[in-house]
Amino acid sequence: MTGILPISKYSSGSELNMFTEYAMAKSRAFSEYFGFSDSEVDMLYERYCRIQKKPLFVGRKELRRWYDGYATPAGKSLYNPRSVVLALNNNSLGNYRTSSGPYDEIFYYIKNNVDSVRDALALMISGIPVMTKIQEYAAVSRNLETKEEIFSAMVIYGFLSYENGTVSIPNKEL
Predict the structure, then answer these.
(1) What tens digit of pLDDT does each residue of 75-103 get?
(2) Rounded to 5, what percent of the chain is helix, strand, coil?
């Protein structure tokens, strides 16, 4: 398991030419392992409550609002595991995703409103999911030209959630 980014093989003679990739947005086989489930977060939160000596600054409902919202192809909801662990370890809700993601790669497309992507993001910010088709390998392209390619990259990077043919902003963290 490597996370949400696809593995790139270097050439047909590379030692990386005999692997199977399971993408978060489309693969059912291992989709439950791409993040934490509700029950896993419940267990971690119970442990946090037992261990934390200071007043609790992280509530269970806030964990859901901040870090839940990624959808598996099987329709299950997942939490961003890195952010959940950091919020509980730091006893503080916050945007832990920004320190791990490739924001620079997508900033150009949003800033320049390539294929009206910024307009569609404004709809998502207001809570309206946007219809799109996801292309699994769009994130490895150097020049993303269509809204579908840009949104595909944003799903692969974990900035958007993909479910039932639509993309949306998954949680408060993003």
Answers:
(1) 888 999 999 999 999 999 999 876 545 67
(2) 40, 10, 50
